[in-house]
Amino acid sequence: MTAAIIDGNALSAEIRAKLAERAATLNANGVSPCLAVILVGEDPASAVYVRNKVAACEKAGVRSLRDVYAADVDPAVVFARIAALNADPTVHGILVQLPLPKNFDSNAVLEAIAPAKDVDGFHAENVGALMQGNPRFIPCTPYGVMEMLKSRNVNLKGAEVVIVGRSNIVGKPMAMLLLAQSATVTICHSQSRDLAFHTRRADVLVAAVGRAKMITGDMIKPGATVIDVGINRLPAEQGGKLCGDVDFESAKEVAGLITPVPGGVGPMTITMLLANTIESAERVAGEKA
Ligand code: NDP
């Protein structure tokens, strides 16, 4: 069996075209959707992510502001900037690119963002709303995964779903969203015993670990849907390319549906960031109307 591919680039293009129409309507009504992105430090991967987010905004008709600070900036400067953006009615979304340098209290930074502008959905108030089944902003990566599953009508009701990884930005919110769709959800992590026992039971398997090719074909149930969130760079001696947490070559022979890396979940994450920003602007426009 060779799995069908869920193409994140193609699905993103479809969704972004609809988002661009919504942004155009907002602009025509005098509300220019705007995302503010803050980058601290020189992490090259973070710089690329920020560049891609800003470029995606421009293409979709979303205005963007970008503040870049040196790694040794006084955190008070960043907090002051967040406060100014919170108070600016022309800004609808604020995103602080993670990870932050070690002298920053990342939680305190995320909590400083006004919940109504927290388009990453990481503020405790928004995490709580998601837990209660009434999300204000759905974290972008799990949101993108849900859109991918929806696009292929993957049945989630009663399905065995296994998520590998329990981070606040992927694993945990992913579990909440799948639970809300009545899946039976198992979350695995670094202390889980016999990972393969769990993954082999999964009708839907989500890998969000950060370890290249750790999920191999023999760990997958025949016909399963496999979502690979991982983004890992192989060492130069292995070609230096990007790859996921799933060993694509062996997994595609067993799975029914699979997402590639690159071109899978990655572009969907940025697409859902645009969706959250536009939705935030629409809420403001609704209040104005
Ligand atoms: P974290 O490092 O925050 O979390 C990794 C999780 O994997 C942890 O829960 C950890 O367990 C678990 N883990 C580590 N080793 C094992 C193991 N051997 N077996 C089972 N579980 C293990 O990572 P993130 O959630 O932030 O990101 C995960 C991956 O997804 C990364 O590759 C990242 O680059 C990528 N990513 C991709 C995005 C996209 O847009 N496609 C967006 C965000 C992330 P424990 O909690 O016990 O330590």
Provide a short characterization of the protein structure:
The chain is 42% helix and 15% strand. It has ten helices and eleven strands.
Q: Could you please say which CATH topology of the largest domain applies here? A: Rossmann fold
CATH C-level label of the largest domain: Alpha Beta
Mean pLDDT across residues: 97
- For the biggest β-sheet, the strand order reads 1-11-8-7-5-6
N-to-C SSE string, H for helix and E for strand: EHEHEHEHHHEHEHEEEEHEH
Enumerate how many helices there are, as a single number: 10
Bin the helical content.
40-55%
Number of separate domains: 2
CATH architectural category of the largest domain: 3-Layer(aba) Sandwich
| Helix/strand/pairing category | alpha/beta
Distance between the termini: 54 Å
Query: CATH superfamily membership of the largest domain, which one?
Result: NAD(P)-binding Rossmann-like Domain
Specify the overall morphology: globular
Identify low-pLDDT runs.
none
C-alpha Rg, in Å? 19 Å
What is bound: which ligands?
NADPH dihydro-nicotinamide-adenine-dinucleotide phosphate
Strand coverage percent: 15-25%
Number of strands: 11
Largest sheet: 6 strands, parallel
What does this entry look like structurally?
This protein has 289 residues and is an alpha/beta fold. The chain folds into 2 domains: 32-114, Leucine Dehydrogenase, chain A, domain 1 (Rossmann fold, 3-Layer(aba) Sandwich); 140-266, 3-Layer(aba) Sandwich (Rossmann fold), CATH 3.40.50.720. The protein has 10 helices and 11 strands. The strands form 3 sheets. A 6-stranded parallel sheet has the order 1-11-8-7-5-6. Helix 2 (44-60) crosses helix 10. The radius of gyration is 19 Å and the shape is globular. The model has no long low-confidence stretch (mean pLDDT 97). Bound molecules: NADPH dihydro-nicotinamide-adenine-dinucleotide phosphate.
